[in-house]
């Protein structure tokens, strides 16, 4: 039974289902805020989707080596985060990973912040933002909700990405679990993001950008980070990293954590500073008071 003061809204975009949950606001006002956030998501899809002929990402793919293109601020910001996470994960995450299927080597590219432009340095820039675009959209949706003075929210994209703002009044956080609804591994999440990556839905679609081979990990990987774009990228990287390299990567991402399942139990890597603490499962009455988010 959900709390009646938490309003739930759904919207289809980026080939998946987005959900907005807003706590502590009048329903009509919450609906207006959610629609503003969904409108932003639709606009982002028109700029970031490689399946949209006139999107920034599709136009970037037409660049020859040495050519440069000015893109929209959101597209540039998303590419900046992608570049940052590629460096942080030592290449385990890359938006050009799928390009190795059609090209003999990794394409190379540069960003120029002063005029929001992208330059093709080598190859064809076949960017695929599938592993970061939905998280980036959640981060921008959160900005919209805060502008509407709706700080207590939970945003979900496709069952694999979640971003929490402030918790509902009188609660510790939004209850989120790793795996199914009965998962013993749960968090009271606030002001942070939890993302999962795996092969169950799309098969072996995650490619190791360092080798061009499909991800070797068969169980899902989960990542907890301050932003949804970062947690999406990190959970994808964790699918191709061994445990030692997961630990090494997290040395430079000290606000993040990763959970890997070895077939018997969850193993945690990294800390959880400032982005919500794990808590034991509460009693049934307290659990019913919270809106729960679990991923298949």
Describe this structure in words.
The chain is of the alpha+beta class. The chain folds into two domains: 6-41 and 133-294, Roll (T-fold); 53-131, no CATH class. Helix content is 28%, strand content 24%. It contains seven helices and 14 strands. The protein has helices at residues 27-48, 56-60, 73-88, 133-147, 228-238, 243-250, 284-289; strands spanning 6-13, 16-23, 68-70, 108-112, 117-122, 153-157, 161-164, 174-177, 186-189, 192-197, 221-225, 257-261, 266-270, 292-294. The strands form three sheets. It has an eight-stranded antiparallel beta sheet with strand order 1-2-6-7-10-11-12-13. β6 and β7 form a beta hairpin. α1 packs antiparallel against α4 (133-147). The longest helix has 22 residues, at 27-48. It is globular and about 55 Å long. The two termini are 20 Å apart. 45% of the residues are buried. Residues 274-296 have low confidence and may be disordered.
| CATH class wording of the largest domain | Alpha Beta
The Cα radius of gyration reads 19 Å
Spans of at least 5 consecutive residues with low confidence = 274-296
- Strand content bin: 15-25%
Query: What's the arrangement of strands in the largest beta sheet?
Result: 1-2-6-7-10-11-12-13
Please tally the helical runs, counting DSSP H or I stretches of 4 or more residues. 7
Could you tell me the CATH topology label of the largest domain.
T-fold
